[in-house]
Amino acid sequence: MKGYKKYYFNKIMWYLLTLIIAVLLNFLLPRLMPGNPVSAIAARTANGMTDQTAVQKVYEDYVKTFGINKPMYVQFFQFIKNLFKGDLGVSFIYYPRTVSDLLAKSVWWTICLQLPAIIVGWLLGNVLGAIAAYIKGAWDKAILPAFLFLSNMPAFGMAILLQFFFAVYLKWFPASLGYGYDLNPNMSFHFIGSVIYHYQLPFWSIVLITIGGQAIGMRSMSIYELNADYVKYSRFLGIKDRKIVKYVFRNAMLPQITGLALSLGTMVGGALVAEMIFSYPGIGTTLMAAITGRDYPVISGCTLIITIMVLIANLLVEILYGFIDPRVKAVQQD
User: What is the per-residue pLDDT across 47-63, written as a single tens digit (0 to 9) for each?
Assistant: First the structure.
């Protein structure tokens, strides 16, 4: 257990260091964007005013409210102080709504879309890769290449393709939004049915681009394991294939778990693009609106939430890997 403590302590320290660097970049990068969003807000507020002194007073009040008249290092320490309080600031374009309020409504839409889609895509990809390696035939020569082709499409390309074919051409599913535009969020069966109906295209656009990459990795590892000496020896001893295959695919899954951890960031990025294409009410759509409006607090809040989600998911995979990989167990026990 002492070895395990050291293993997990090192992992957690590295993730904390990554989080600190991410928070620093999260603060700096939006503020390096060109343009002054406060000027746009002040212009909207002062629309119709003819007194230039009053217009200037409106602008100065907004600058003071958002604190952008202070030196960058003062803004940073204030940002960190507020972060520990759970205060991500006030949105520029949705003023006076807070960033926390905006993200609280959008983050659950993103989690409920991305987490199931990534897991389903990963599982289906591994099953397809294992079947292609073991059964071969049409699975290996036709179905696997087809999914590999789909997975190499960019996320926005897959989303637009599904949107055009199933929403515009066939009219089977809605082209955008997370639920009917004439509905208010509630727990009624009608609303839940509308959410599930609007959920299909964003969900499958993420799943389809996930399957191919996972399948090809699982196929390669399964073929390697099927040709290993222990498999040949087990067959020579007369052990049934059904029992051998169970160990083969369990060993082949270990690198796939690592692959899942490494590719989570890319998957999440692709999923956010899908949200933007379908105008799904998640973090991706909120982030797009914030970038367009140069809304620094919302951009920082979105990227921080995305970073934390990816880091937590990777850390959980690392912890799981430490328990299921016999090699890690052996090293920690030495």
Answer: 666 666 766 776 676 66
